[in-house]
């Protein structure tokens, strides 16, 4: 049987890098995609140190041409058995603020467009090869609107929604789709979104990236469509179904608020 490769986007750090190392431990070879060549090479060395092959593709997934190139480079001559659609970023501030657009545009390009396109490219490839698994990294943020991180929350709602539909469409067709919805996780995401200094970020007890990746991997293996790792995060996600929308907005607004 042709060996299966795991393609991880955003593999240069955080949850993506944890996925890469976990997949290597599980005996898979890796295709690692992100922008930062030096950090990707470090991730590749970690994979090789675990006895597996690692191919590095430096690509800016906010550019649709780069998304196509990354997929072509990854998949020509390789069977991509797993796609971990993990690359993502957030932005903080009021939606109406005039200066947020550049980063919001990037979030939409990476969190939504690149993820959608890669999944669309991967489905026929996987189905044609006899099956596969897709993990889309959404977020607990996808269960609720998020004043202060409006575009981020909305982008993750999109990922959660789309993943469930595609999982349903692909049932009995050999390809599973899992939306991984972590709560706050100790990675560089908060610093890059400009909120590493928020008290809630400093004080909130957060799991590490490796725990989150393991929960996502196990759920994908089990063919689970949505996974919220951690008891407290599950409670938060479920509580959104019974919390009045106005109260939910006000709670989330307070969560992301910058103290005066
Ligand atoms: N940390 C959390 O609390 C949390 C909670 C829920 C969900 N998530 C989700 O988990 C995923 C991973 O985030 P993380 O927490 O691990 O954050 P992170 O440490 O900041 O990692 C983000 C990854 O995405 C890559 N990336 C960003 N922009 C990119 C672009 N234009 N093209 C290619 N790659 C790009 C980065 O690589 P380069 O900079 O090298 O390009 C990096 O590898 C994201 O989708 C995030 O929304 C995170």
Characterize the structure shown.
By secondary structure, the chain is α/β, with parallel strands linked by helices. The protein has one domain (4-256): Rossmann fold, CATH 3.40.50.720. Helix content is 49%, strand content 15%. The chain has a seven-stranded parallel β-sheet with strand order 3-2-1-4-5-6-7, with helices on both faces. Helix 1 packs across helix 8 (209-221), helix 3 runs parallel beside helix 4 (101-128) and helix 4 (101-128) runs parallel beside helix 5. The chain is globular. It starts with a strand and ends with a helix. Bound molecules: NADP nicotinamide-adenine-dinucleotide phosphate. NADP nicotinamide-adenine-dinucleotide phosphate binds next to helix 1 and helix 6.
Put the structure in a nutshell.
This protein has 260 residues and is of the alpha/beta class. It has helices at 14-25, 37-49, 64-75, 101-128, 150-169, 189-192, 199-203, 209-221, 231-239, 245-256, and strands at residues 4-9, 29-34, 54-58, 79-85, 132-137, 175-180, 226-227.
């Amino acid at each position: 049987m042709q060996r299966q490769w795991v393609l991880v986007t955003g593999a240069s750090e955080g949850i993506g890098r944890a996925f890469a190392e976990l997949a290597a431990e599980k005996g898979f070879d890796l295709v690692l995609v992100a922008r930062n060549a030096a950090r990707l090479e470090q991730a590749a060395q970690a994979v090789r140190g675990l006895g597996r092959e690692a191919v590095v593709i430096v690509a800016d997934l906010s550019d649709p041409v780069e998304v196509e190139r990354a997929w072509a480079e990854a998949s020509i001559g390789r069977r991509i058995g797993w796609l971990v659609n993990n690359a993502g970023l957030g932005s903080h501030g009021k939606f109406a603020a005039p200066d947020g657009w550049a980063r919001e545009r990037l979030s939409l390009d990476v969190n939504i467009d690149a993820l959608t396109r890669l999944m669309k490219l991967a489905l026929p490839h996987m189905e044609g090869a006899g099956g596969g698994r897709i993990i889309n990294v959404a977020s607990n943020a996808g269960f609720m609107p998020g004043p202060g991180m409006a575009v981020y929350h909305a982008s993750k709602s999109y990922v959660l929604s789309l993943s469930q539909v595609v999982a349903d469409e692909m049932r009995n067709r050999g390809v599973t789709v899992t939306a991984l919805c972590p709560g706050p996780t100790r990675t560089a995401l908060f610093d890059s979104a400009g909120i590493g200094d928020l008290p809630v970020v400093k004080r909130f007890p957060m799991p590490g990236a490796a725990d989150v990746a393991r929960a996502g991997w196990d759920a994908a293996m089990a063919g689970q469509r949505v996974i919220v790792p951690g008891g407290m995060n599950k409670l938060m996600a479920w509580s959104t179904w019974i919390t009045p929308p106005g109260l939910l907005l006000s709670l989330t607004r307070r969560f992301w608020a910058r103290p005066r």
